[in-house]
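Let's sit down with a protein and look at its sequence and fold side by side. Which protein we use is up to you, so please pick one and set it down. Label the sequence line and the structure token line clearly, so we can match residues to local backbone shapes. Go ahead whenever you are ready, and we will take it from there:

***
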Amino acid sequence: MSATPDAFASVPSEHTELSLLEKAWRHRRGIFGWLSVTTHQAIGMRYIITAFIMLLAGGVEALLMRTQLARPNNTFLGPDRYNEIFTTHGTTMMFLFAVPVMEGMAIYLIPLMLGTRNVAFPRLNAFGYWLYLGGCLFLYWGVFTNTAPDMGWFAYPPLSGPQFTPGKRSDFWAQMITFTEVSALCVATEIIVTIFKMRAPRMSLNRMPLYVWSMLVQSFMVIFAMPGVVIASSYLLSDRTVSTHFVNPAEGGDPLLYQHVFWFFGHPEVYIIFLPALGFVSSIVVANARREIFGYPAMVLSLIANGFIAFGLWVHHMFATGLPQIGEAYFTASSMMIAITSGIQIFCWLATLWAGRVRRTTALHFVYGFIAIFVLGGLTGVMLASVPLDLQVHDTYFVIAHFHYVLIGGALFPLFGAFYHWFPKMTGRLMSERLGKINFWFLFIGFNLTFFPMHILGLKGMPRRVYTYPVEMGWGPISFLATVGAWIIAIGGVIFIVNVLSSRRSPHFAAANPWDAPSLEWAADSPPPNYNFEHLPAVASRYPLWDPPEDRGVVTGLRNDRREVLVTTLMDAEPHHRYVLPSSSIWPFITAVCVSIGFAGSVFNPWYIIWGSIISGLALIGWFWPRRPFHVEP
């Protein structure tokens, strides 16, 4: 690949060359081929679909809890079953849905937005998905074999320790964490390398889409935050299985150590979920306002600042543990300061919409809903940053209300907007705008009807994690109202599923770029082929599809008979060298199975870690065994 300007000249497509390209990137057929796929579109869709199934499971669990709490002294669920359901609900939503679905969207979209053909490490990408799927199956195997965790989704010791939770319930939770967090670290690694080294020529860092920036910051956060929760869960698991004394107070361990390590992950986790949503909103706003984003440098700097400040907030989850007041003051200040960086983005979006020619699509409706809900959730977050108020409402429904306003309002509404926005790219068909707006109003009304009353319940003193309550407390009418809202949310979810299925089977195809969006993913076919682009694009601005046709170019000189991509420089994305990606392989799946055997078996016998490591090492030999580069004959 030459770095001369000739490399960017437009060339006509050759039928023979296109045939070679299609053969080089073709999937094998049959179950063996399905297990061997490493293209980013296929792996991204698997993440999205699996995470959506987890959302449905977590939603059903939420409905069961709300039905139990609809009236006082209800006997729909017993206390033990209720504990299992609320623990599985929180675990599913935080670890098996929220982060993986954001990763799946990034895996699908980022190579397209960057103008390349796959992620940097396609086999690692496949391995990460299979390990994530193993974590889902491991948790719900426990659910369906009466071994579901029942101590809350953050598993505080000593409640989760061997003294108060005998059996394997806490062990299943602790080891499931390892599955999902190793998977997240795989995704973060490949996203960072893809963004830094595989951008389209001339897509310098200050020309990247804001969604790509949000995922770059999020991926660095994953690398620094996720080891914290793996360490915390490993402390707990080793205390329970091999009698170490890390966090079990009965043996001299320190439960506050567990809380510090866990929340060092736990609060950045909120922003690991939230930052991709900010990227979704920026893309949707630009496409529907039909103008450049207002304040691009300020948006990028606020994303980076969000990532840094998020690591200085964790102790505001621990204000009730009796920490030194000087420490509490520091974390109060940090908790309030992060509202500034989020506010900058909101004002930039509003300025963009104010000056644009707004097209009111369903995706933009979800952006409006996000802004309204997230602002309210942010205000209650500032309230909870105050130590005296936090002490009063700690472990009440006020905290549940704030948490869901931030996470559902701040992540789920932008995610649904993203589904509507990029559905034509993924399927080649538009979703029904009429059904989409109905879907939005059901979710928006149901959400506020469910969670806004919980602020009042919290101020009235209703503690969370209680499976029932007496009539004389006066919580019944408000709890019933919240339950009605939960069922309205469920109806909105059903409408969304109907819209997806009916649109997917629609005979009417979407235009190549139905929103007239400016980023490179809309330059590929919809849905994109396995190789994304016949000729890799080169860009001349921040919004390449809004440039005049004469300013657009393509890369020439790459071989089409093998999976060859262009590697560019980090800062300015100048062509550096060609690189051949490995072909599809079943070894990532086999390796994930071997690792899963070691992880799952260690819950029952610690020696499984040794045996799992041995068979995983053998699988890695097959994975990395040197082979001749795959290519097809013309």
